[in-house]
Amino acid sequence: MQGYIIRRLLYFIPTLILISIDSFAVIQAPPRDFVTTLVVQMEARGDQVDEDLINALRARYGLGKPLWQQYLIWIGNILIGDLGVSMAYNQPVSRIIMDRLPWSLLFSFSAFLIVYAIGFPIGFLSAVRQYSIADYFLTFVGFIGLAIPNFMLALILLWGHFEATGQALVGIFSVEYAVAPWSFGKFLDLLYHLWIPALIVGTAGTTGLIRIVRANLLDERKKPYVTAARAKGVSETRLILNYPVRLAINPVISNIGYVLLALISGEVITSIVIGLPTIGPVLLRALQTEDMYLAGSIVLILSVLTLVGTLVSNLLLAVIDPRIRHGV
Amino acid sequence: MNTVNNSNRDWLIDIKDLHVKFSQDDETINAVNGVDIRVHKGEAVGIVGESGCGKTVTSYSMLNILPSNGEIVSGEVRYREDNGNVIDITRLNPRSREMRRLRGGEIAMIFQEPMASFSPVHTIRDQIAEGILLHQPPKDKRVREIIIEYLGMVGISNPERAIDAYPFQLSGGMRQRAMIAMALACNPKVLVADEPTTALDVTIQAQVLMLIKKMQQELGLALVLITHDLGVIAHMADFVYVMYLGRVVERGPVVKIFNSPKHPYTRDLIRSIPKLNTPEKRLATIQGNVPDASRLPSGCAFHPRCREIIGETCRRDQPVLEEVEADHFAGCFLYSTHEETEPNTGGTDSVEYPS
Question: Which chain B residues are within 8 Å of A234, Cβ to Cβ?
Answer without folding.
Answer: 100, 130, 134
